[in-house]
Amino acid sequence: MSKMWKTEADLRAEKAKAAGGAAAGKIDAARKNELDALLKRLASITAVFQMRADGVPVPQFRQIRELMDIYIAGGIRAISEGQDFLDHGIKLSEQEIVDVHRLVRNVFNIDIGGTDQMDAAKEPAKP
Question: Does residue 15 belong to any structural domain of this protein?
Answer without folding.
Answer: no
